[in-house]
Structure formats: structure tokens, C-alpha cells
Amino acid sequence: MLYDNIAAISRRITDAAARSGRKRGDVGLVAVTKTVDAVTIRKAFDAGLRVFGENRVQEAREKIDYLGGIPGATGDVQWHLIGHLQRNKVKYAVGLFDLIHSVDSAALADELERQASKNGGVQKILVEVKLSDEETKHGVAAAELEHLLVHISGLKGLALRGLMTIPPFFGDPEEARPYFRRLRELRDEMQKKGFDLPELSMGMSGDFEVAIEEGATLVRIGTAIFGERG
Ligand SMILES: *Cc1c(COP(=O)(O)O)cnc(C)c1O
Fold first, then answer.
1. Do the bridges between strand 123-130 and strand 99-103 make them parallel or antiparallel, or are there none, so unpaired?
2. Ligand 1 pocket, 139 CB below 6 A?
3. Does residue 156 contact residue 113 with C-beta atoms inside 8 Å?
4. Where are the domains of the chain?
């Protein structure tokens, strides 16, 4: 089941990448393991997955501790934080995650900087951009993006790697396409202004192929791998 799902997703990623003139290796799969138990994550590891995404710091910590025991796996596995990060959780998140996808304010960036420099390390981050007007969504508004990128560029403990977005949910993935295209255009605009933003984190189970066609370099997929969350 898990093997079949992963093989099918991998094939669909390859095909969508080809449609945007890219290769399978140009698109990273973040397996979203929120609510998925550690034993199942272990099976996903055995099936070849290496990058896991969680949306809560505490839940991630427990799984990372448990899976830390996988022989030979520690150097190979990456954990990404894809969910909203509260400032009071930053001290637990820094160093735990290889990439934090959800930085959306100067205040959060400053706290990440403070904790990262305490550790003497550099935290890789993406900036989450909010392209819809949904009240419930996090992310910096497109109009404020440049300002935030300038701010982050001045922080030595943070390595800015790109942008992330979560479009509104649509039954038809084609309706999400303009949001993905907008994020890529914003990235291109910001790159012209001198920011280095190689990563575009966009696309989930229902719409990842469209996101890849529009330039995604990281897709975040849960349900299509692990089934519906309970
Ligand atoms: C849950 C989640 C996903 C994965 O969603 P699926 O539809 O299960 O693939 C991707 N990104 C974020 C930010 C999430 O919270």
C-alpha cells in the first residue's frame, strides 16, 4: 500500500516535472507525517522516503527522538517544519528542523535569529506568502514581502532559501494554478532584486502536479501517501 502510493506519487512527480522541462531530481518530495505514527514513518523510510514534514514542533520532537534510532538513518533523513510556528516554540524548533517553511514576520525571524545564534548554527528557512485573503491563513502579504526579505537578509543566523504558499482549497486543482504561478512570479521579481530564492514550496496531495508545472521545487504530500488523516 505505502510502497504503491510512493511509487505512484514519484511517477506523477516525474511526469509533471517533464512537463515543465525538468527532471525528477529537481523536485523534492516532503512526506507530510502529521498524525502519522512513528512506526509508519519508519516504513516510509524503508520504502525510500528521506524528507518528512510536520506541522507541530512537539509532535515532531517525539517522532524525531523515536526515529533517531534508525541505524544509519540520522545523516540521511531531513525534517521540515511546514506548519505555523509560534514564537514561544522557536527555541525547540531551531536545530531540530533542517528547513522551516513558515517564516512570515520580522518578529518571528528575529526570534529564530536569537535562538540560532545561541546554538552557533544557521537555520535554513522559507518565507510563507499569503496570496489569498482568507482570514485563517498565515503568511506575509505580497506587498510586504520585499521588506521582510530585506530584514531577513540582515540576520546572520538565518539562511533564506525560498518561498512557500498554501492556496485556498479547491476541488479542481486548476483553480490553484494562478496562486502557484503568482508565487513563482514573485520569486522571479525578488531574484531580480538580488535575493537568492532557489526553493518554491508549493503543492499538496490534491494539486501538486499543477504546482510542479508552475515551478515547485518542493511538494508537501500527506494524504496521497499515507491515506486520509483520522
Ligand atoms: C497537511 C499539510 C500538507 C499536506 O496535505 P495533504 O493534502 O494531506 O497532502 C501540506 N502542507 C501543509 C502546510 C500542511 O499542513
1. parallel
2. no
3. yes
4. 2-226
Ligand 1 and 166: CB distance under 6 A: yes
Mutational pocket test of ligand 1: of 40, 220, 226, 229, the residue with most ligand atoms within 8 Å of the beta carbon: 220
- Specify the ligand 1 atom closest to the Cα of 30: 10
Architecture of domain 2-226: Alpha-Beta Barrel (3.20)
Please give the distance of CA 191 from its chain centroid, rounded to a whole number: 19
Cα separation of 25 and 67, whole Å?
Answer: 25
pTM of the shown model: 0.96
Q: Distance between CA 93 and CA 227 in Å, rounded?
A: 27
Start-to-end CA distance of the chain, whole Å, equals 17
**Closest atom of ligand 1 relative to the 164 alpha carbon:** 13
Instruction: Write the pLDDT tens digit of every residue in 26-76.
Output: 999 999 999 999 999 999 999 999 999 999 999 999 998 888 756 555 568
Q: For cell 528521506, what's the residue?
A: 50
